Amino acid sequence: MSRSTLALYQLDRAALKRLSAELEALLVANDAPGLAQLLGVELTTLEGRPRLVDHFLLPEGELHEALRRAARLRTLAPIFTSDNPALEGRLRAFDALREDATAAAAIDRLLNPKRVPWYLRRAGATCGWLDEPQRAELCKRLDRVRGALTPELRAFATGLAQVDGDVVAHDGL
Amino acid sequence: MGWLDKLKVKLGVLDADDAENLEEEAPRAERRTAHANRGERPSLDGIEPASQQSLEDVLAAREAGDRDEMRRLLRELDRGRGLRVVLRAAAALEAGDEAELAELLPKLRGEELAWRLPLQLASVLEDAPRAEALRARAAAANAPRWALAWSRALANDPEEQRRGLVELLFVDPALARTVAARDLALEGAVADPEGAERHAAFAHGRQCVRRFGAGLVADVLDRARGRA
C-alpha cells in the first residue's frame, strides 16, 4: 500500500468563504439541482435522501469526494507536493523544529484538520491551514535552521516560501 | 469530580452538573465494592457520607408512581444547583408545596441554567411555540452555536430541523454526525467519537427532563423567571 504525501496549496480565502456560504444556502434550501451543479455530479446521485444534508452526515462517500474536488478547484492552487512519505513525521518530530516553540505550534496548526472546513477534511487524512502572518513566521523559523534540516524538510521550506498568502496542507486531495 | 472533568467543565465541553451526573452513571456498585474492600476503616467524625442515590433512582421512583420517595430522594441529592434542584423544584410545584418551592426558586436563577436547560427542554417539548421561546431565551443568554443548532436539529418542524442540521454540520461536524446517528437514527449514520462526549453530557440532562416531564420542568423555569 502506498503512503500519501503532503502537498501545500495557496488558499483563496475569499473564495472559500463564498463556497461555504453557497453550500450552506443550498443545503438549507434543499436545492438538489444547485448542489448537483456545485459538485459536478448527476442529479440522480443526490436521490434517496429527503434532506440533502443527510448525504454529508454519513460516512465518507462519493459525494464527500466530489465536494472536496469542487472546493479544491474553486479555492486552492497547488504549490508544492512532497515526494517523501516521511515528511509529515519529520515535521511532527524533528528536534530542531520541536525545540522552537513557535515553529512547532505553527506546524501543529498546519497539520490540524479541525482548522479547515468540514468539507475539506477526509477521514484519516492530514490537513490544516495557516494564515499569511503565521505562514511567513514559519518560513522565517525554517530558514534559521535550514542547515540542520533533512532534504524533505528543506524542500518543504522552499515550497512554503513559494506560497503567497494563506496556505493549506493536505495529503488527501 | 476528577481533574479531567474539571478541565472539561472549564473548557465548556461539560457542565458541572452533567459531570456529576455522568459520574453517577459510572458503575457505582463497583465504587461501593472498592470502598467495602478497603477493610474496616473507621468513619470520620462529623463527616456525612455522600448520598449513594442518583437521578436514575429519582426517575425510577417517579415512574413507579412513588412521589413521596421521589421527593425524599431529590431532597437528599440536592446540592443547591444544577438539574437536581430544578427537578426538586418541579416536584414541589407539582405537589403544590409552595413553601419548598419558594425556598428553591432563587437557586434556579443562576447563570448555569441560562441556556443549557432551556435548550434541553426545547429539544423534548412537543409544544412548538414554547420550545421556540426557550430557544430564543437561550440565544439571548449567549448559548453556543452548536447547542442552538443541535436543539433546532431536533425540532418537530422539518424546515427548522433541516436548518439546524446544516448549521450543526458547519459548526461541529462530529457532533452533527453523532446527532444524526443517535438522535435521528439516520440510516447509515455513525456516531463520531469526537462528538460523543459532548452529546452524552447534553443528552443526559435532556433525557432526565423528558422522563421527569418536560412541561412541568418548563413550568418551574417560568416560575423562577416570575412568569407564572
How do the helices and strands line up, and which of them pair or pack?
The complex is a heterodimer of chains A (173) and B (228).
Chain A: E1 7-11, H1 13-29, H2 32-39, H3 62-75, E2 76-81, H4 87-93, H5 95-98, H6 101-110, E3 127-130, H7 132-144, H8 151-162, E4 167-170
Antiparallel strand pairs in A: 1-2, 1-4, 3-4
Helix pairs in contact in A: 6-7, 7-8
Chain B: H1 3-11, H2 16-25, H3 28-36, H4 55-63, H5 67-77, H6 82-95, H7 98-104, H8 116-124, H9 128-140, H10 145-153, H11 158-171, H12 173-182, H13 193-212, H14 214-224
Helix pairs in contact in B: 2-13, 4-5, 5-6, 6-7, 6-14, 8-9, 8-10, 8-13, 10-11, 11-12, 12-13
Helices and strands of chain A, in N-to-C order? Answer: EHHHEHHHEHHE
Contiguous runs where pLDDT drops below 50 for at least 5 residues of chain B: 21-38
Oligomeric state of this protein: heterodimer
| Beta-strand proportion of chain A | 5-15%
The percent of residues in helical segments of chain A reads 40-55%
Average pLDDT metric of chain B: 82
Helix-strand category of chain A: alpha+beta
Radius of gyration of chain A equals 18 Å
Q: State the end-to-end distance of chain B.
A: 36 Å
* Main beta-sheet strand count, sense and barrel state of chain B: none
Order of helices and strands of chain B: HHHHHHHHHHHHHH
- Give the proportion of residues in helices of chain B: 55-70%
* Number of distinct helices of chain A: 8
Can I get a quick summary?
With 173 residues, chain A is of the alpha+beta class.
Properties at a glance:
heterodimer; A: 173 residues; alpha+beta; 2 domains; four-stranded antiparallel sheet; B: 228 residues; mainly alpha; 68% helix; globular
Can you walk me through this structure?
- The complex is a heterodimer of chains A (173) and B (228).
- Chain A has two domains: 7-12 and 76-170, no CATH class; 13-75, no CATH class.
- Chain A is built from eight helices and four strands.
- A four-stranded antiparallel beta sheet of chain A has the order 2-1-4-3.
- Chain A has 173 residues and is of the alpha+beta class.
- Chain A is elongated and about 55 Å long.
- Chain B has helices at 3-11, 16-25, 28-36, 55-63, 67-77, 82-95, 98-104, 116-124, 128-140, 145-153, 158-171, 173-182, 193-212, 214-224.
- The radius of gyration of chain B is 19 Å and the shape is globular.
- Chain B has 228 residues and is mostly helical.
- Chain B has a domain at 112-212.
- Chain B has 14 helices and no strands.
- Chain A binds chain B through residues 20, 24, 27-28, 30, 51, 53-54, 56-59, 117-118, 121, and chain B through 162-163, 165-167, 169-170, 173, 176-177, 180, 186, 188-190.
